[in-house]
Design goal:
Bound molecules: heme C
CATH topology of the largest domain: Immunoglobulin-like
Shape: elongated
Strand content: 25-35%
CATH architecture of the largest domain: Sandwich
Number of strands: 9
Largest sheet: 6 strands, mixed
CATH class of the largest domain: Mainly Beta
Order of helices and strands: HEEEEEEEEEHHHH
Strand order of the largest sheet: 2-9-8-4-5-6
Radius of gyration: 22 Å
């Protein structure tokens, strides 16, 4: 979900916003007739699974679209459930070629550490082979559904210790207070990052393994190892 930033410009966002306004008025009345979109939970923490399902009361002959708005970008799920940044002017990837009656799993992933924010999923049915956000009438507005999910990064102190044991203890020992090879400087995540970039003590290989959020969690634990 934190892949390349969408190329979507303001007009596209405005089109989706318009579509959403339509949703607010119509979905309450029409949702049960067509579809029910739901997520595994309203709030999902790092390490937990987020699953978004769609229950269709009746089979649809048209194409099903799932848009995800996250971090200011617009993404669409393709037929494999993979996220594609929305591209204005290009045919919008569809999630379902035809939706049979019953439950469809639209999206399922384990939330990575550090990913936090509001994720909004929208589904609607309509015409295929066009940019559905830019083509008036392409989407059946009465089928539009929305679920919002809050993604919560794991608390820093919760996995800082585990990450330290996994990545650092082999050289710096299990107790940072012993200050083996100046590990206490790692209370400042920037110091650790610099040491890694400079390959200090052979630490350079860690560069591709540890995210910024994980560095912050490790630094917090080194500062207060309990
Ligand atoms: C392969 C062994 C190894 C691993 C794994 C390792 N380090 Fe180091 N690290 C060292 C050595 C050796 C030094 C001291 C090098 C020196 O003083 O020249 C060092 C130095 C440091 C320093 C001090 C840098 C400075 O400016 O003085 C920090 C902070 C640090 N490591 C943090 C970490 C953290 C946090 C991890 C885990 C994410 C980690 N290291 C993993 C070997 C390792």
């Amino acid at each position: 979900m934190n892949t390349t930033r969408s190329k979507a410009g303001r007009p596209a966002r405005a089109a989706l916003a318009l579509a959403l306004c339509g949703l607010l008025g119509i979905a309450a009345a029409a949702s049960s007739a067509f579809a029910q979109l739901s997520a595994s939970a309203g709030s999902v923490s790092a390490g937990q699974n987020l699953t978004v399902t769609l229950d269709l009361a009746n089979a649809r002959a048209d194409s099903g679209y799932v848009a995800l708005m996250f971090g200011g970008g617009i993404y669409f799920l393709d037929e494999n459930g993979a996220l594609q940044p929305y591209q204005a002017g290009a045919p919008t990837p569809r999630r379902l070629a035809q939706g049979g009656a019953g439950r469809h799993t639209l999206f399922s992933m384990t939330i990575p550490a550090g990913l936090a924010g509001q994720a909004d999923f929208y589904t609607a049915f309509g015409q295929s082979g066009v940019d559905v956000l830019a083509t008036p009438g392409a989407l059946d507005m009465s089928s539009l559904q929305h679920v919002g999910v809050t993604l919560t990064a794991a608390a820093a102190s919760a996995d800082g210790k585990a990450l330290y044991m996994q990545h650092c203890a082999v050289c710096h020992g299990g107790n940072p207070l012993a200050n083996t090879d100046n590990i206490l400087a790692g209370r400042d995540a920037a110091k650790t990052r610099q040491a890694i970039v400079e390959d200090t003590g052979g630490m350079g290989y860690l560069q591709s393994f540890i995210t910024d959020a994980e560095h912050a969690a490790i630094a917090a634990w080194i500062a207060n190892p309990t």
